């Protein structure tokens, strides 16, 4: 919804060529996507060799909770009516795919100007995940 985005597409089926992008910024998207694993596969597909994907999602607890819930239940379980899951620290397992390396940076480790400019100062998301496509 941000007017600064370059492309508005279905992240589960992106219309881009393989190995196209050096940088993919995916902040607070995956928790809204029906098939986040498919979205991650697409990110890996279009990420150029040695490219980097920056991923941020709200994290709560140790285990990811997901399931097809009625909208009325989503706020109670996922803390927001348009979320389809509540990620836990086990997100590293989802992010770890063949051909990708994953590292975690805490927002507090980053420069304050970068945190503010990129809206990384979310109380539920102190971690930023950096996925690199191995050459």
Observed structural traits:
135 residues, two-stranded antiparallel ribbon
| Spatial strand arrangement across the major sheet | 1-2-6-5
Number of DSSP strands?
6
Radius of gyration: 15 Å
Portion in strands: 25-35%
Q: What composes the largest sheet?
A: 4 strands, mixed
CA distance, first residue to last residue: 32 Å
The 3D shape can be described as: globular
Order of helices and strands: EHEEHEHEHE
Helix proportion of residues, in percent?
A: 10-25%
Task: Give the number of helices.
Answer: 4
Which residues form runs of ≥5 with pLDDT under 50? none
Kindly state the mean pLDDT as a whole number? 88
Question: Could you say which structural class the secondary elements and strand pairing correspond to?
Answer: alpha+beta
Task: Describe the 3D structure.
It is a single chain. Helices cover about 20% and strands about 25% of the residues. The chain has about 140 residues and is of the alpha+beta class. It has a four-stranded mixed β-sheet with strand order 1-2-6-5, with helices on one face. A two-stranded antiparallel ribbon has the order 3-4.
